[in-house]
Amino acid sequence: MESKEISMHTVKSLMILDNDGKRVLAKYYDDTYSTLPEQQAFEKKLFQSTYKMDSEIVLVDGQTVVYKSNVDLFFYLVGAADENELLLREILSTFYQSVNAVLLQNVEKRNLLTNLGKIYMIIDAMLDQGILMEASVNNILKQVPAKREEMVMDQSLAQAIQSAKNQFYFFN
């Protein structure tokens, strides 16, 4: 009997495509598709496999894919073929709920592109190199600044600290 190596790397990739199958956002966590042309070919195949289907789970290129469509966007989460579909579905649901909250229940391409920085913050709060780090929508949203000014202020604070460090080292 062959034993499967246990891995915490649950997610192989996460992506959002528009109604034409074009990439809006994509994060790949392994090197299955290491080049941009390979990723684009996979995304095209993925979109063609799911565009007119009613299911939420599909097997594409030997990988388990869960997806959700909304207005003009398709949300995809890719895991290994033997990954638990319910776990992948729950991760995608958490991601979607977090995006929905940040976009104030207006999940559509234009609004998503306007808030792309916050969407990447959601992904970074949830996943680290494909490992699920946070599954609570409330905890994820606590890590995403509500206003743009907060993001700028956090950056300015970091710049001020770095400037102080540089001055400290300069005078010592």
Report on this model:
- The longest helix has 24 residues.
- This protein has 6 helices and 7 strands.
- About 3% of the residues have low confidence.
- The protein has a 5-stranded antiparallel beta sheet.
- It is an alpha+beta fold and 172 residues long.
- Strand 6 and strand 7 form a beta hairpin.
- Helix 2 packs antiparallel against helix 4.
**What is Rg?**
19 Å
* Net shape: globular
Poorly predicted parts = 149-154
Q: Which class of secondary structure composition applies to the elements?
A: alpha+beta
Share of residues in helices: 40-55%
% residues in beta strands: 15-25%
How many individual helices? 6
Q: For the largest beta sheet, what order do the strands appear in spatially?
A: 2-1-5-4-3
Averaging pLDDT over every residue, what do you get? Answer: 82
* Strands, total number: 7
Could you give the distance between the termini? 64 Å
